[in-house]
Amino acid sequence: MKKKILFIIPLPPPIHGASIINKCIKNSTKINKKFETFYINSHTSKTFESLEKFNFYKIAQILKVLCLCFFKLLFKNPDIVFFNLSPLGWGLYKDCVLVFVIKLFKKKIIYHMHGKGIKNQVIKSNFKKILFRYLLKNANLICLSKKLVSDINLVRDKSKLLTIINNFSEKSNIKNKKRSKSLTFVYLSNLIVSKGILIFLDAIKILQNKKKIKSFEVKIIGKATDERFHTLIKNKTLSLQNINYLGPLYGSKKFIELNKSDILVFPTMYSKETYPLAILESMQMKLGIISTNEGAISEIIDHNQNGFILKRCNAHECAHYMLKYIRNMKLAYAHGTKAKLKYSKRYTFKIFEKNICNFLERI
Fold this sequence. Notes:
By secondary structure, the protein is α/β, with parallel strands linked by helices. The chain folds into 2 domains: 4-168 and 348-362, 3-Layer(aba) Sandwich (Rossmann fold), CATH 3.40.50; 183-346, Glycogen Phosphorylase B (Rossmann fold, 3-Layer(aba) Sandwich), CATH 3.40.50. It contains 14 helices and 12 strands. The chain has helices at 17-26, 29-34, 56-75, 89-104, 118-124, 126-136, 197-210, 227-238, 251-259, 277-284, 297-300, 315-327, 329-346, 349-362; strands at 4-9, 36-41, 80-83, 108-113, 139-143, 162-164, 183-188, 216-221, 243-247, 263-266, 288-292, 307-310. The strands form 2 sheets. The protein has a 6-stranded parallel β-sheet, sandwiched between helices. It has a 6-stranded parallel β-sheet with strand order 9-8-7-10-11-12, with helices on both faces. Strand 7 (183-188), helix 7 (197-210) and strand 8 (216-221) form a beta-alpha-beta unit. It is globular, with a radius of gyration of 21 Å.
């Protein structure tokens, strides 16, 4: 008899790393064949901009999710509840309510930990320490990387199972392109300051104005969080050459543009960055990477093997490594080839799917 699993997970929209991963779980033939599965979309936001903001729409949505959760637990009687726990803000308190209901029914819980920030909270607040110990008691955990386990070590239940399952990139059927005569750098993420878009633009300015180097192309893919920032980006790009601002792209359109690029520049300082899909998607399309040591990125990027890790994360260092690639295109292509190889060995959906199924069976 198949084991029953209730997945309480955020699904698109809005589109972000966790929701993309969860959509693939929901659509997985292997998972849905091996187990009797039920799904509840725990998203209470319509847009990326409203994710961490309170409004009355969210109250209505949490009541809806709570009712669905109660119904599924009562009438479907799942063996396991698979849950994405929000570590911060409004999402944390919303999840507390849902977890309280799940614990009332005494169900086995698996938390798929996509975010980070728990350690900083429990060090500063005894209340948060008590809260997270309650949430994680008797819970099995999936972390994205060994580097991220330290974020939950102070409060996790060490008598329960913990496994490491890396993120993945959705498979693209687009064949890798032939190399062009000049390099194309691409930025792929939401256009917010902490994701590094301004550092990238300033690095381009350094190369074009100070170094007098203009033999490269630039693409920016992403959504501006508000109109003022959108205007700021447009004004900055007007003073630079060879920049193509494409706005937000998804699915095959995104992969087509990545396929026509050579290097991803992603100088993120985002405090909740863990295992960014933008990097994995770019590696799949044979791009070298310039990024930072945020979250588990240094596990994905081997410095001077498949990309470069910025130590100081500023425009001058970013420009330094971009120039290194411009002056040595063979190095750029070699890093892209190694990035693709590492992707194929570690970051495909097939590998992720197998690991998830194995862990669910262990529980």
